[in-house]
Amino acid sequence: MFKHYKGGSFKVFSEEDVTTVHEATVYLLEKVGIKMHNETARQIFKEKGAAVEEAQRIVKIPRSMIEEAIDSTPSKIILCGRDEKHDLLLEGSNVHLGTGGTVLNTLDLDSGRKRLTGVKDVANYAKMTDALDNIAFFVINCYPNDVKEEEVDINRFYHGLKNTSKHVMGGIYTMDGLKAVISMAEDIAGGKEKLKERPFVSFITLMMSPLLMEVTYTDFLIEVARRGLPLTTPSEPLAGANSPVTLAGTITLNNAESLGGLILTQLINKGNPTLYGSTSSIMDMRTGTYMAGNIESALINAGCAQMAQHYKIPMYGTGGMSDSKVVDAQAGYESANTAMVVALSGCNYIHDAFGLLEFCTTLSYEKMVVDNDSVGMALRAVKGVEVSKETIATDIIEEVGPGGHFLDHPHTVEHVRKEFYFPKLSDRQQRSVWEEAGSKDTFTRAHEEARRILEKHEPLGFSEDMEKHLREKYSGIK
Questions:
Q1: Are 178 and 95 in contact (CB under 8 A)?
Q2: Chain mean position to CA 377
Q3: What is the C-alpha to C-alpha distance for residues 231 and 98, in angstroms, rounded to an integer?
Q4: Which pLDDT score is estimated for 338?
Q5: Is 342 in contact with 382 (CB distance < 8 Å)?
Q6: In what order do the strands lie in the sheet with 362-364?
Q7: Residue 200 three-state SS
Q8: Check: CATH 1.10.240.10 for 5-9+74-383?
Q9: Contacts by 445-448, CB closer than 8 A, 24 or more apart
Q10: How is the chain split into domains, by residue range?
Q11: Residue 217: pLDDT band by 50, 70, 90 thresholds?
């Protein structure tokens, strides 16, 4: 099981606020409804007792249906890795952080210039994920621009699964691609039931704002739910654009939309492992562009995390991004602050926390390494301060006495690695030592570490027979 700590020390809402947001959500779902362009989804809701206004394609969901779906959604979900040591327990306020984004560009490791991502980048970013110890999972974070559209899904998941034994989640682009990916995962698992027992893949199905479910993503949701595999139903309201400019209003809208997808999932397959979700942020009202590294996004996701905890449903949230174009001070403080806030809120599955720049459109290998330390510090903050007789150490203080020291005491040896976080990238040497080592800045050290990982790290991969089988069965794999 991958190491996790319990968050929840940072709360956006009082208990009264949570109730207010919930009641506003129920009102929206019952009285305003969700526009569902997907005919199958409307029929499912109608058969289960929801009010469907067919001409307007509006589905109004009664309180009883909302409550039943919340109750039937598992409060404990285990997302597995291909290696059991990477299994993730999503429950309560357990915190894990990982990748995300599905971006089209990367900063090239050799030239430093922005270029389109390809299949090799999917594989390399999965390998980076496998090697960096604070990354808990791989949400496939880039798009292979060098393959045909109908082969994108199989290539993304194949190269992800081959290059990391951590859990792999991703969005989907075609129904044929979704079915091929599930079939491939079943082959790797050893059968359909074995995959359901240990799901090492899961899927993202998006809601639209405000209060809309379109055809294609809803088809994906229906297919995944019928297969009994884990999925998340995030929405992405942008405060000031397609949601109210007020953060409370955006959280309420996000809550209604994510629950809408979750309810449909439970109507299809009661008890299906489903994550409540948010990828919400704000619009820059000066430029009309989406913002990724803003603190308001972190507050919105923290508020959604509190609603998910109220419902006792694990949450997929967002934190750790930056709007900077390069790996600089802005990239550091935006990523660190947003990841920290969302982690302290107790969000269970925080994606987008590694490597993302430029409004979530560009990846950086070096930033993944930098973010590994930043997230390590955030997790140390989430862990908090343990108070016990052993940690207060009155007897040790008495034993050492006034004027003594604790450097060589067994208590120090026993506890130092539990109490202190030791970053792998940060320079903590005296200036003279740093100068003797070449006066390397953080970016240079991160660049060297990224290159070392890609050259030296060996992920689990596939057996020779499995590799042959997959390439023969799924001819689109590049």
A1: no
A2: 18
A3: 16
A4: 98
A5: no
A6: 114-116, 105-107, 362-364, 356-357
A7: coil
A8: no
A9: 445/369, 446/327, 446/366, 446/367, 446/369, 446/370, 447/109, 447/365, 447/366
A10: 5-9+74-383, 15-69, 389-419
A11: very high
